[in-house]
Amino acid sequence: MPAPLAVVLAAHGSRHPGAMNALDAFKETLLRELPGAAVEIARTVGRKHGGRHDFGGARRVADVLAGLAASGAARIVVQSLHVVPGEEYHEMLAGLGRFLETDGAGLTVSVGAPLLASLADVDRVAGALLAGLPAARRADEAVVVMGHGAPPPGAGFYASLAAALARRDARMHFGTMPREKGAPCPDIARIRDALLASGTRSAWLSPFFTVAGAHACCDLAGDAPGSWRGVLEASGIRCRPLLAGLIEQPPLAAIWRDHLDTALSRLS
Question: Is 39 helix (H, G, I), strand (E, B) or coil?
Answer without folding.
Answer: strand
